[in-house]
Amino acid sequence: MLKYLENPYLQEEIFTFIVICVLLFLRVFASEIIKKSAKLNESLEHRTNLVIKYVNILLGLLAVFTIIIIWGVKKEQIFLFISSVFAVIGVAAFAQWSLLSNITAGIILFFSYPFKIGDKIKIMDKDFPLEGEIQDIKAFYIILKTIDNEIVTYPNNLLMQKGILIIKSTFEDKEFTD
Questions:
Q1: Angle at 37 between CA 36 and CA 41, to 5 degrees
Q2: Which member of 81, 107, 132, 141 lies 3.0 to 4.6 Å from 153 by CB, making a disulfide possible if both were Cys?
Q3: How far is residue 82's CA from residue 85's CA, in Å, rounded to a whole number?
Q4: In sequence order, what are the beta bridge partners of 146?
Q5: Are 167 and 120 contacting, i.e. CB atoms less than 8 angstroms apart?
Q6: Mean pLDDT calculated for residue range 19-41
Q7: Which helix (H) or strand (E) holds 154?
Q8: How buried is 38 (Cβ within 10 angstroms: 0-12 exposed, 13-18 middle, 19+ buried)?
Q9: H or E segment and range at residue 143
């Protein structure tokens, strides 16, 4: 028993355990809030699970960062590491800005936009107007089925920039399952 009390890392271990418990609690809490929001907005389950996955990744990264601080990594080392990571991410983000903007637009569409899978919409683009039924809404794009039975993928970031006319709205109320 005394060996445990003489452990020089006991405080760090306890705080790490607390951070992990808080992480698990926040994951469950955030998941429930997102599911309630999805229910109010009549969003489908697979879109809800996608947003939950994004939030869980963010919470996990915050927990790792907190644990690194708890274990006493020097501030200079943390800032050097973070600045290096941001430099790499910045280059990658510049090279892949459309992917990141599509993911961001997908999350925004999940929480705020009025159309859902099954709605018939018209995208008000002056060069290439498009009308079709929404078959699926993914992280990067939506899938539309046109009147001519053509399947069209349309990027989420462009969808946020164009006016959308909802022609017909349908929704089937279903319970969420894990």
A1: 120
A2: 141
A3: 5
A4: 132
A5: yes
A6: 89
A7: strand 151-155
A8: buried
A9: strand 141-146
To which residue do tokens 């890392």 refer? Answer: 9
Q: How confident is the model at residue 141 (pLDDT cuts 50, 70, 90)?
A: confident
3-state secondary structure string, 53-106?
A: HHHHHHHHHHHHHHHHHHCCCCHHHHHHHHHHHHHHHHHHHHHCHHHHHHHHHH
Per-residue pLDDT band for 176 (boundaries 50, 70, 90) equals low
Report the C-alpha gap between 130 and 152 in whole angstroms. 9
Tokens of 146: 């046109």
For the chain, what percent of residues have pLDDT higher than 90?
Answer: 18
Alpha-carbon span 81 to 79, nearest angstrom: 5
Rounded distance, CA 154 to CA 115, Å? 14
